[in-house]
Amino acid sequence: MPTRIRPVFPRFQAALFRAGGIAAFVLILIPSLQAQILTLEKALEIAFKNSPSIQEARYQLTINGENLKAQQAGLKSQFLLTLTPLTVSQTRTFSDLTSRYNTQELTKSALRFSITQPIKWTDGTLTIVDSFNWQKAASSYTGFISEATFNNSLTFRLIQPVFTYNRTKMQIRQLELSLENSQINYNLQKLSIERSVTQQFLGLYSTLESVKIAQEELKNATESYQIIESKVKAGISAPEELYQADLTRLNSVAGLENKQMSYENALDNFKILLGVPLTQEIEVVADIRKQLAEVDLQKAVDHAQANRMELRTRNNAILTALDNLIKTDAENEFKASIDVSLGLTGVNKQFQSIYESSNTDKQIAVSLNIPVFDWGQKTHRLAASQAAVDTQRMSFEEYRKQITLEIRQAYRTLQNQKRQIEIVEINVQNAQRTYEINLERYKNGDLSSKDMQFYQLQLSQQRLNQLQALINYKLALLDIKIRSLWDFENNRSVIDNF
């Protein structure tokens, strides 16, 4: 069963022991009923919610995701309606032909509706524009006789660049890479938080268990003191044995208080990591049992090589460098643009007859950009961009090797920790038997208090070693899980949780 212990404060504990040894030990073990119980899973949940680094990564993920959605929405048809209900103007100009001034009055209403459709696959733009106008004009030349007309113009226009790269597709790809990098960074932050929280959680639990063991030491020292006290009173043992037993007991009290202080300090650090108030009372509950997992080294390496997010980031860096190479090559490139438009325009005094005498407008324009001489500027820029691509590719391959090296070392550490657990189990058994045998000798007066203290400390140390060996194994298993992205305890991929 998991252990829950709430150590009392040193001054209160000292008062309890002055009142009575065994009763004090029982009171120390009374759990706090108001403290929040934290398992590792609950601690991780709180850390994922409160961690500033996780929140920052989540915000960046949202930013890049919304930017990509906005860019993709921009590839759909864009509708624009421009309405000018009324324009009234009066102008006076001098005519060189008639050598006189002319005053013109104009009243106008206009409506413009356009549809713009970007073409992703060709980087072209198709535009449809319909312009409708009504105007009423009069001038001093005609004696200010006004005339009203309706005008409507419908135009289809296609602009298509050729002999160049597709800027629309490249911009979409860059936004997709940015979003993927944000997702990778978010997942890496989660793994980093999991590592930090697990390490501190198990460290805190280890400190708590050391408090428990110190309490057991104090209990044993108190019992030994009571035994030797009765023997001294009966004249069976020398008084110096009582002094030694009292020294051992007081050393146990001091050791317990030191461990309680270490526990409280570690608890405050853990609260800071979780982002909870320092005044909040919490207790950690862990199930540290011998639960060994079978780890396949080759599977760990293969899964890491296929899924490690740092490799994906470096691969994205290669793609970005290649795009930059394309952009550099296009800085002073030969390119062309084709502009084709077809329009129908009608003007009439009657709205229903607006297209009776319509005009058809056609236009085809081809423009060429022909570089002549740039003094080698493009050549040097291309060489620099190509070197950047080669650098990213080399970094990718080197990191692949580094991943294999890290997993092999993590695997050796895990195997070593399994062996350490086996050794320490035997040590605990031997220390327990040794302590029990010498306790009987001590009760019979065949062993001094100082020697008995040695066997007691030896047992306590071996128990701590056993706990630390189990914790080290769990941390080693977590390390290979994070490095391979495969959970060997549950036999599943870690990336399924992302």
SSE diagram, text form:
Elements: H1 10-19, H2 21-28, E1 36-38, H3 40-50, H4 52-73, E2 78-95, E3 100-119, E4 124-139, E5 147-162, H5 167-233, H6 239-274, E6 282-284, H7 297-307, H8 309-329, E7 335-348, E8 359-369, H9 377-443, H10 449-484, E9 486-487, E10 492-493
Parallel strand pairs: 1-6
Antiparallel strand pairs: 2-3, 3-4, 4-5, 5-7, 7-8, 9-10
Helix pairs in contact: 1-2, 2-5, 3-5, 4-5, 5-6, 5-8, 5-10, 7-9, 7-10, 8-9, 9-10
User: What is the tally of beta strands?
Assistant: 10
Which series of helices and strands comes N to C? HHEHHEEEEHHEHHEEHHEE
Query: What strand order characterises the main sheet?
Result: 2-3-4-5-7-8
Number of helices: 10
Evaluate the radius of gyration: 42 Å
Note the overall shape: elongated
> What profile does the largest beta sheet have?
6 strands, antiparallel
Detailed description of the structure:
The protein is α+β, with helices and mostly antiparallel strands and 498 residues long. It has three domains: 34-75 and 168-286, Outer membrane efflux proteins (OEP); 77-119 and 124-163 and 334-370; 288-333 and 376-498, Outer membrane efflux proteins (OEP), CATH 1.20.1600.10. 58% of the residues lie in helices and 21% in strands. The strands form three sheets. It has a six-stranded antiparallel sheet, with no helix packed on it. Strands 1-6 form a two-stranded parallel sheet. It has a two-stranded antiparallel sheet with strand order 9-10. Helix 1 (10-19) runs antiparallel to helix 2, helix 2 packs antiparallel against helix 5 and helix 5 packs antiparallel against helix 10 (449-484). The chain is elongated, with a radius of gyration of 42 Å.
